[in-house]
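Here is the promised in-class demo. Please do not try to memorize the tokens; focus on the logic of going from shape to residues.
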């Protein structure tokens, strides 16, 4: 049996219902108050603020509008902050650590309210997350973390021991987990489309297939070079995340582009979907090389994602690798075919934190470390408000240094070794707990 459906596609499953639109090219504008680079959640939320704030806003996009991660992701909406409060306290002090975690909770609450207020039809649902432990130690640590919550973000979180796990997830492989009831699910491409419509309705111009090639500072603002011509702008906002390139070398030196991969299965019988996702939550696990999955909004398919490698660019090769992992977790899916396989590029940072600020007068928000639906939207909004000079534009990230490494210019040569090392550690932890000796000790 072939692994792929006859009508298999190498575009995101989400695009079947909301593919990036071919926007008509309007006359080239040589001036704008604000030029936004990138048309994902960051760029569009920033543009929405500046356009509604009365600034002539032009969004430049290298590909189709929304063709980056913002229409490719898993649709799992979380607080997005990876380092623990303990770790952040060590680095930045207790007050800032708590403020950063509170910002994560604020972004999650904000995006739900925003989608509701704007009436964006994107299958948004506060489904909750089941975060599964891949070793008993990870289960203990998770259970401890919610018993003494480090910040308000875990309100209502509860642990599920392995003996009760089937009530949350149709897999025996994990060692229990924790439910975060406030995390949500949405249809990423429908959300992006709703945003795009609102940005256009607010009067902003979006120029697709028009990359910013170079940004030069000049009197009273900036000159942005593109293949279509040069644009002068008072303010520039950079929202290019994993696709950050040569136009902004300072930012490029600070983000690590990493491929993230997804598959969708063929439609499955309702009883099988009910067995795998009895509570219909989104799911992730504690592995460093994480896997995350959920049911499609219509509960007919499994949407399964993870990091299969650091550099794979062929969905026909990444798809089977994800499929193998999916079957390891859910043997009952044996024989299930892949209908879609796709990938996107996310941006990690050297401190596992997202960053926003102003460098050489240029505003930016990026580095969501693979988890940016809520935070990219929220920081995009805040960045737009900062450009407007509004008093409520501050964030807990303001003033944090955005680290890089000596000689790093944006080409993560160290990634294959790092991914292999983390995968080995993840597998060793799982093997140990399953009673097998670790492979290399
Ligand atoms: C497979 C996958 C699964 C994911 N799953 C989840 C998930 O379940 N939950 C979650 O929270 N996050 C998830 N993410 C991450 C999330 O999608 C991103 O954090 C978020 O979309 C980032 O939005 P953004 O607007 O900053 O970047 P993007 O949406 O990537 O947009 C950046 C845009 O900038 C454009 N660009 C780059 N350079 C230029 C230039 N010079 N000129 C003009 N345009 C330029 C690019 O073409 C791109 O369209 C996932 C990502 C991937 C790839």
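The designed amino acids, position by position:
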């Amino acid at each position: 049996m072939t692994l792929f459906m006859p009508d298999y596609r190498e575009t995101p499953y989400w695009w079947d219902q909301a593919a990036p639109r071919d926007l008509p090219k309007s006359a080239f504008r040589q001036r704008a108050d604000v030029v936004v680079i990138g048309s994902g959640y960051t760029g569009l939320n920033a543009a929405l603020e500046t356009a509604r704030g009365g600034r002539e806003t032009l969004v430049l996009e290298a590909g189709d509008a929304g063709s980056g991660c913002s229409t490719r992701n898993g649709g799992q909406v979380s607080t997005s902050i990876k380092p623990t409060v303990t770790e952040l306290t060590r680095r930045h002090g207790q007050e800032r650590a708590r403020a950063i975690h509170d910002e994560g909770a604020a972004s999650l609450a904000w995006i739900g309210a925003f989608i509701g207020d704007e009436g964006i039809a994107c299958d948004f649902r506060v489904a909750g997350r089941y975060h599964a432990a891949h070793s008993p130690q990870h289960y203990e640590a998770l259970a401890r973390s919610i018993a003494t919550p480090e910040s308000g973000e875990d309100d209502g979180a509860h642990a599920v021991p392995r003996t009760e796990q089937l009530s949350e997830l149709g897999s025996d492989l994990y060692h229990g987990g924790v439910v975060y009831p406030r995390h949500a699910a949405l249809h990423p491409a429908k959300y992006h489309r709703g945003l795009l419509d609102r940005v256009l309705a607010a009067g902003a111009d979006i120029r697709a297939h028009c990359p910013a090639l170079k940004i030069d500072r000049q009197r009273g603002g900036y000159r942005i070079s593109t293949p279509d011509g040069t644009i002068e702008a008072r303010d520039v906002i950079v929202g290019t995340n994993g696709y950050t390139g040569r136009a902004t070398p300072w930012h490029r030196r600070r983000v690590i582009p990493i491929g993230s991969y997804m598959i969708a299965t063929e439609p499955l019988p309702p009883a099988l979907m009910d067995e795998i996702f009895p509570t219909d939550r989104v799911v992730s696990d504690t592995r460093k090389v994480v896997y995350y999955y959920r049911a499609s909004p219509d509960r007919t398919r499994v949407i399964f994602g993870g990091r299969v490698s650091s550099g794979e660019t062929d969905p026909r090769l990444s798809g089977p690798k994800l499929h193998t992992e999916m079957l390891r977790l859910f043997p009952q899916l044996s024989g299930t075919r892949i209908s879609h396989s796709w990938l996107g590029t996310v941006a990690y940072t050297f401190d596992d934190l997202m960053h926003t600020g102003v460098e050489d007068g240029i505003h930016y928000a990026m580095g969501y470390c693979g988890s940016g639906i809520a935070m990219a939207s929220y920081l995009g909004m805040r960045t737009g408000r900062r450009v407007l000079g509004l008093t409520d534009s501050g964030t807990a990230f303001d003033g944090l240094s955005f680290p890089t490494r000596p000689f790093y210019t944006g080409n993560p040569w160290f990634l294959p070794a790092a991914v292999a090392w983390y995968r080995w550690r993840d597998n060793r932890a799982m093997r140990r707990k399953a009673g097998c000796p670790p492979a290399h000790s």
